[in-house]
């Protein structure tokens, strides 16, 4: 009998780990490495939010709370959903967890049985398929192609839905592509979902506020109110408020699902950190003006990176609508050889060799289920980004 459970054995160790470890080793050995792998904003958490946490500590908000969130925070989340998304959720329809990832994990573990299927567009955030596997269910990967702006076509979704399909996971703006769906594009998908009453929708809106060129964000339950009764609308404070370390995520959905999530959470982590909940309350209720500056800064960086990458031989980089990632194709580099004699036969080889020869750490597309691409996070200073793009241009220009 092996030590590791059969379900855990189905989960791959994080494919992004190898490159992150290698970058760390190289840095420690004194190499000049620019890391473009991080999935978090480089800004500091705003002071008013930190202050709210300090005050919560001083007031003694340091004990267990209700398992799925303090009433004050649930109310602020309900107001947020109403104000920003036009969605009416009661406090019994809201759950708070230790990060969006825990809410997602709980929702899937609480609802999936062996043999159930979960439809996931690729390229995907790496956690989706692995959590589905942990739940003993089957990820069904459907491709969102470069030529379609990395957005899933309704007919592709329709063809993937079987009687065993339990969830459709939707993520806009997307990690890793930054693609964000317009209202019309979402409507085309919700029209398909309306026909399949057994399929639930998990909409991961964590990058909601990071959209550019005046893009109008919207979410499936707003676009198609008839779907709200089988939709979980997932969000959190990590990305919008630069609070990745505070671990607060939340969701709105039908009360029975919210209750099942709480049952599971009550037997694992119990409540999310009390202090972080008070900080998240301030994030949602406090001034939002700083977001404009952040978005402006992200948009400038996106434009810089897209323009410089498109000047690199063999690279094609679409302009994403949101998040802080670009997902360029390196198809034009595959099959070529570097000056040092390394043959680039996959996007993984592209990423490892780029790190080795130029000291730039990116994540290869195979990790996100679509090759040959790579992901760059531009949540880093413009000088470092410019230098990294120069090195990528140099690397690609020297391939033959
Ligand atoms: N969803 C997506 C698409 C993400 O990229 C992330 C974080 O990288 C999360 C959810 C979860 O974030 P957190 O657990 O910090 O709320």
Description:
This protein is of the alpha/beta class and 400 residues long. It has 2 domains: 6-44 and 290-397, Aspartate Aminotransferase, domain 1; 63-285, Type I PLP-dependent aspartate aminotransferase-like (Major domain) (Aspartate Aminotransferase, domain 2, 3-Layer(aba) Sandwich), CATH 3.40.640.10. It is 40% helix and 12% strand. The chain has a 7-stranded mixed beta sheet with strand order 2-8-7-6-5-3-4, sandwiched between helices. Strands 9-12-11 form a 3-stranded antiparallel beta sheet. Helix 6 links the parallel strand 3 (117-122) and strand 4. It starts with 5 loop residues before the first helix and ends with a helix. The model has no long low-confidence stretch (mean pLDDT 96). Bound molecules: pyridoxal-5'-phosphate. Pyridoxal-5'-phosphate (PLP) is lined by residues 39, 99-101, 125, 171, 175, 204, 206, 236, 238, 244, 249. The site of pyridoxal-5'-phosphate has 13 residues, from helix 5.
Record the SSE blueprint.
Layout: H1 6-9, H2 16-28, E1 34-35, H3 47-59, H4 71-85, E2 94-97, H5 100-111, E3 117-122, H6 127-134, E4 138-143, H7 154-160, E5 165-171, H8 183-195, E6 200-204, H9 220-223, E7 231-236, E8 249-252, H10 255-266, H11 274-285, H12 290-310, E9 325-326, H13 347-358, E10 360-361, E11 363-364, E12 374-377, H14 382-397
Parallel strand pairs: 1-10, 3-4, 3-5, 5-6, 6-7
Antiparallel strand pairs: 2-8, 7-8, 9-12, 11-12
The chain binds pyridoxal-5'-phosphate.
Pyridoxal-5'-phosphate binds next to helix 5.
């Amino acid at each position: 009998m092996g030590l590791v459970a059969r379900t855990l054995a189905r989960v791959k160790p994080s494919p992004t780990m190898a490159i992150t470890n290698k970058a760390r080793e190289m840095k420690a050995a004194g190499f000049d490495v620019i890391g473009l792998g991080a999935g978090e904003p480089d800004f500091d958490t705003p002071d008013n939010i930190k202050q709210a946490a300090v005050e919560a500590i001083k007031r003694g908000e340091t004990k267990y709370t209700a398992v799925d969130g303090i009433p004050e925070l649930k109310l602020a989340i309900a107001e947020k959903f109403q104000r920003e998304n036009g969605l009416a959720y009661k406090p019994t329809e809201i759950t708070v967890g230790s990060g969006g990832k825990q809410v997602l994990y709980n929702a899937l573990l609480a609802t999936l049985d062996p043999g159930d299927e979960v439809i996931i567009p690729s390229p995907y955030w790496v956690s989706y398929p692995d959590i589905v596997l942990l739940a003993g269910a089957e990820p069904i990967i459907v491709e969102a192609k470069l030529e379609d702006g990395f957005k899933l076509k309704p007919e592709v979704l329709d063809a993937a839905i079987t009687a065993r399909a339990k969830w459709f996971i939707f993520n806009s703006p997307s990690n890793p592509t930054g693609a964000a769906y317009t209202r019309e594009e979402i409507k085309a998908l919700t029209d398909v979902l309306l026909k399949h009453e057994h399929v639930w929708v998990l909409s991961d809106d964590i990058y909601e506020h990071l959209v550019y060129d005046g893009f109008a964000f919207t979410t499936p339950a707003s676009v198609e109110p008839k779907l709200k009764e089988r939709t979980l609308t997932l969000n959190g404070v990590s990305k919008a408020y630069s609070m990745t370390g505070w671990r607060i995520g939340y969701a709105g959905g039908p009360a029975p699902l919210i209750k099942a999530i709480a049952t599971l959470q009550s037997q694992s982590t119990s409540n999310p950190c009390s202090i972080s909940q008070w900080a998240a309350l301030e994030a949602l209720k406090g001034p939002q003006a700083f977001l404009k500056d952040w978005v402006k800064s992200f948009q400038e960086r996106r434009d810089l990176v897209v323009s410089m990458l498109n000047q690199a031989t063999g690279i094609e980089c679409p302009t994403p609508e949101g998040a802080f990632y670009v997902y360029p194709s390196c198809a034009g580099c595959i099959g070529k050889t570097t000056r040092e004699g390394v043959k680039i036969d996959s996007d993984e080889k592209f990423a490892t060799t780029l790190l080795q020869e130029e000291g730039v750490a990116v994540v290869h597309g195979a990790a996100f289920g679509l090759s040959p691409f790579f992901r760059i996070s531009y949540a880093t200073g413009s000088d470092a980004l410019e230098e990294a793009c120069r090195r990528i241009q140099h690397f690609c220009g020297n391939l033959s």
